TrEMBL record:
MF terms (GO), sorted A to Z: ATP binding; isoleucine-tRNA ligase activity
Ligase found in the keyword field: yes
Protein name per Swiss-Prot or TrEMBL: Isoleucine--tRNA ligase, cytoplasmic
Single GO BP term: isoleucyl-tRNA aminoacylation
SUPFAM superfamilies tied to this protein: Anticodon-binding domain of a subclass of class I aminoacyl-tRNA synthetases
Keyword vocabulary terms for this entry: Ligase
InterPro entries referenced in this protein's UniProt entry, alphabetically: Ile-tRNA-ligase_type2, tRNAsynth_Ia_anticodon-bd
Lineage of source species: Eukaryota, Metazoa, Cnidaria, Anthozoa, Octocorallia
Length: 125
């Protein structure tokens, strides 16, 4: 256990997350890896996460086939917003008749303010 460096493990884990999410976005937008992109932007609230991504920039650039990596904590600058989407199948089974009301409330009334480290909504207003 003395040989385990948690900071390095966390940095590599963050890098892997960025690469996996980058691949998912490429798949959804039908942009094959063989076509280079000008830039990938990593947006996260945790500065340590951003530092880890920046420290392993060369690996991310190579794996995602991009020319530039930009890290930022300013989601508004890039037009990013968070929204709540209900799990219709689960809610339908549990709520039965009240499903429609609850689903509309989730979609309409709540504004997600942020995410904690667990990637679950932290605050809703």
């Amino acid at each position: 256990e003395d040989l385990i460096h948690k900071d390095i493990e966390n940095a590599v884990s963050h890098m892997q997350s960025v690469i996996e999410l980058g691949r998912v976005v490429r798949d959804r937008k039908t942009l094959p890896i063989k076509y280079p992109l000008p830039e990938v932007v990593v947006i996260h609230q945790d500065n340590q996460y951003l530092q880890d991504a920046k420290s392993l920039e060369s690996y991310i650039i190579e794996e995602l086939n991009v020319k530039k990596l930009t890290v930022s904590s300013e989601k508004d600058k890039y037009g990013i917003y968070l929204k709540a989407e209900p799990d219709n199948q689960t809610l339908g089974r549990r709520l039965k008749g009240a499903f429609k009301q609850v689903s509309q409330a989730i979609k309409g009334q709540f504004r997600i303010v942020g995410f904690p480290e667990s990637s679950r909504p932290a605050e809703m207003q």
